[in-house]
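tRNA (cytidine(34)-2'-O)-methyltransferase: structure, please.
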Amino acid sequence: MPLHIALYQPEIPANTGNIARTCAGTHTSLHLIRPLGFSTDDKMLKRAGLDYWAHVDIHYHDDLDAFIAHTESQNAKVYLIETYSDVPFSEHDFSHQEQDIYFLFGRETTGLPQEFAQARAQDCLRIPQSEHIRSLNLSNSAAIVIYEALRQQGYPNLA
Ligand SMILES: C[S@@+](CC[C@H](N)C(=O)[O-])C[C@H]1O[C@@H](n2cnc3c(N)ncnc32)[C@H](O)[C@@H]1O
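Here you go.
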């Protein structure tokens, strides 16, 4: 079953552009949870040279509740990827392909809402990093996690 990347209220178009490119290159769906800090109209996309945008399976959700309702309707598994977890993401098993898997990432400046993440602490995963930075770049984080899931699944339909 497909893998999905979800971005909670992304603010920086270059990050979403990088992640969209990773999605187009890996058959991963992209979910954007509003409000967005930028426009995704045709003019913006053309100006940014995002010519792969047509290959991105993109979905918009009005807010976090609408996104969670969507995942529940699919009986999907949602993992929260956040700095304040202490469970290393790569210790998790993403190889089960019978269920859709969503990786939910937080906003560039403030991450995921803390209360929301605390209520789902058992599904919250961290990418190990040093103490010299507060966090990794959002688009790098998404690439790291999706490629670990793809590695565990044997890179389905990728050459
Ligand atoms: C630039 S970070 C900012 C959020 C962070 N909590 C903060 O306020 O310092 C944006 C998003 O990238 C992801 N991220 C960055 N570094 C991460 C890490 N080491 N482990 C897990 N997720 C990370 C998370 O999804 C996070 O919400």
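Notes: The two ends are 18 Å apart (CA to CA).
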